[in-house]
Amino acid sequence: MPLLKNHWITLRKRQVPVIVKVIFDMIKIRSIMTRNVITISQGSTVKEAAQLMSSKSVSSLVVVENSKPVAIVSENDIIKGIISNKKSVKDVMSGEFMSISPSAKFSEINNSMRNGKIKRFPVVENDRLVGLITETDIIQATRDFTRFHQIVQEVILAVFGFATAFFLFYFSPIGASVFG
Amino acid sequence: MARVSKIMLTGVPTLKKEAKIEDAARLLAQTQVGCVVVVEDKNPIGIVTELDLVRNAVSKGKSLKEPVGRIMSSPLTLMTPNMKLDEALKIIDTKKFRKYPVAENGALIGLATKKDIVNAISDNLRFHRNIQNIVLILFVLFELFVFVIGRYVPQYLAFGA
Question: pLDDT tens digits, residue range B77-122?
Fold first, then answer.
């Protein structure tokens, strides 16, 4: 437990226990993104992209040029490509994507994910690709946050329950005889 | 707790077992659902997702004229419309799939996705948490009220300071 070992850290010019920073950072993109993004170059063929997807078990590849993301190839793009007989990744990739900063908040992209318009967000820091947010990451994060909020709520309820019990006992006739 | 029937998608694209991979690819490209359910007399027998098509057909260089039966995932994990969302979540945790056809008496009626189920549960719990917090705040106000009354008007109470 970092809190018990008394590890402190600077957060927004204040000294806080590490656990506070952990909770504070939970809602940041940096902590939920996939870090090892599988990338591909524009010159590759669609079949190579498909093989890369199946060997790495991913559902989308980021097309990079000098470690800067230029487009995304999803499974849907590949399927659209093969029915219209396109061979090169350059022809099937979709250049319209939204990149986000790793210090952005989870809630900023959660809504667009839910609407289903945009499903993948490359995470870019200083013009370099550092990660990727996919639906799987968002689902996992939603589950983690839900669990976390549940625990917080249970703690609040427990504390409040004890406080109430004590309050009632304190003012009851028996409590009055105990506490004087 | 809400049921699967409330969050499932309807109008899922379906195909016969004899259909070609090409047909599945066309349907996947046209619709936003991301999967095609393979049916036999309305009974779901398999599912072809974008993942199946890319990993089993495109990457292995299969001909698009082959039947979808070769690349579909089967047997299926089905959900029923009356299933509660937390039961659905248990299935999701054991099976690790993303899309589950919903069937009633063997006939396909919809599709439940992992994303929709997790989001619905999260929203549900948030709703309950908000109600719990409101009740809690009202209770605190009530306690304060009782405390003040007990402090200054003790003669009106059965117990008091």
Answer: 999 999 999 999 999 999 989 999 999 998 999 999 999 999 999 9
Domain count of the fold of chain A? 3
Q: How remote is the C-alpha of A146 from its chain's centroid?
A: 13
Whether residue B8 sits in one domain with residue B38: yes
- ipTM for the predicted complex comes to 0.78
Determine, for residues B22 and A172 on separate chains, whether the beta-carbon distance falls below 8 Å. Answer: no
Reduce the DSSP state of residue A92 to 3 states and report it.
Answer: helix
Tell me, yes or no, whether B87 lies in a domain. Answer: yes
Q: Which helix (H) or strand (E) holds A144?
A: helix A135-171
Query: Of A1-15, A57-71, A144-158, B31-45, which range is least confident?
Result: A1-15
Q: Which residues of A touch B115 (CB under 8 A)?
A: 135, 138-139
Instruction: Establish, for the pair of chains A and B, how many residue pairs have beta carbons separated by less than 8 Å.
Output: 85
Q: Establish if B87 touches chain A: CB-CB under 8 angstroms.
A: no
Cβ atoms of residues B53 and B86 within 8 Å: no
- Name the DSSP letter for residue A59: S
Contact yes or no for B37/B84 (Cβ under 8 A): no
Q: What global pTM score does this model have?
A: 0.81
